[in-house]
DNA sequence: CAATGAAGAGACCGGCGGTCCGCTAGTGTG
DNA sequence: CACACTAGCGGACCGCCGGTCTCTTCATTG
């Protein structure tokens, strides 16, 4: 074990926190979130497990922090990359499809964000104190609201309520389709002998774009 | 430990299998799938853990078996309950909304099926042999196809391909929305003090009906 | 310079999914 | 009826998990 110089000041404590988060981010690049254990995380960060838990209240808390960071970075990137107002006077359905493809591409370019999103409800939010859960919930709420505004900029015919529904649905679809798009190696191998199973595990980006597009078209057509 | 009369014949072995499955079904009534441990399952079934694993290759295999059974029973029930052809000459969108409400109600009446569906991709399909995974995948494929036919009966304007997309999406939405609709007690408690978080965890049946309806409307409107 | 109190490490805990092994009940045979 | 064989079975055991507890160490402060 590395035996650290001890963190006495707040900045030094922040260094510890960041080291844990960076180690977690590295591990996410090479394994699914379920495979990230506290033991291995501490080992790679060069700290004792109990020392990691001095800075994070649980394993899930670390991952939730990673998710919040990745989501914030993703939104900043969206803001830079796709500021375009809907310039062309195309019908709303066509623009909706364009938005869906762009969004799906953006999510597809951030696999670790997708991985964390797919685990957030079933895994990450358990085993966490009320405080941490609520802090994260509020961040998620703000993120979904921000994304709703983003959608409204590209599809001005969406009123506030529909934009919020669309935004929530996008996050839901990202998580659900990401999981389905990553079967175990065993199943992948089986695709060779039984192609009728392939549709259960479609390509993530394509399936996401298609699903978002269909949902947006439904929203635009809905009389409610 | 109960110390069984030993199972020598195939029927006796089947009795063991059924006892494990029944015990699992009972546990599902009172706890989420993640909380069902092999230790407790074996204890309740009155068998040694190693004896349970003589009949099922892993914990996940038991749960997958439960899922297949629950899904089959659900389909049989749907078949009985909703044979109605689309008699009224209402517009397709209106009928689609009716189908969505009916389907959502049917799923809402089977919480353990929903619970298993929500866990199937992320949890149940791991830690299972190729054989078991494929056997279950084929059953899932057939179930989705059957449900596609069911949807086509109620909404004849859906061609085969769209009916299949709709059917897959329904299963996806059931799983994803079920998870979101069951936050931890901590978060539930927080709704009292911050109602702006409520939309993150909507009522299952309502949210499901709304999502299915919107998706169906989008499918019907899609020119592709 | 000693007292203090926080940072850190590592032993420890209960529980998990799963395996191994020895016992013995039940069967088929002489 | 006796005996050997084998398969059902229970329980000890394994390595791992997330998390806690206790003891050491050392920078700061009076």
DSSP helical segment count of chain A: 10
Q: Can you give the helix content of chain A as a percent range?
A: over 70%
SSE topology string of chain A = HHHHHHHHHH
**Count of DSSP E strands of chain A?**
0
Low-confidence stretches of chain A: none
Query: Biggest β-sheet of chain A, characterized?
Result: none
Name the overall outline of chain A.
globular
Rg of chain A is 20 Å
Task: Name the pair of protein chains with the most residues at their interface, and give those residue counts.
Answer: A-B, 53 and 53 residues
Mean pLDDT of chain A, to the nearest integer, reads 92
Strand content of chain A: under 5%
Between the first and last Cα atoms of chain A, what is the distance in angstroms?
62 Å
Highlighted features:
homodimer, 224 residues, mainly alpha, 71% helix, 0% strand, DNA-binding, HTH_TetR (chains A, B)
How do you describe this structure in short?
With 224 residues, chain A is mainly α. Chain A has helices at 10-30, 38-45, 49-55, 59-81, 92-108, 111-124, 130-154, 160-180, 185-190, 204-221. Chain A is globular and about 65 Å long.
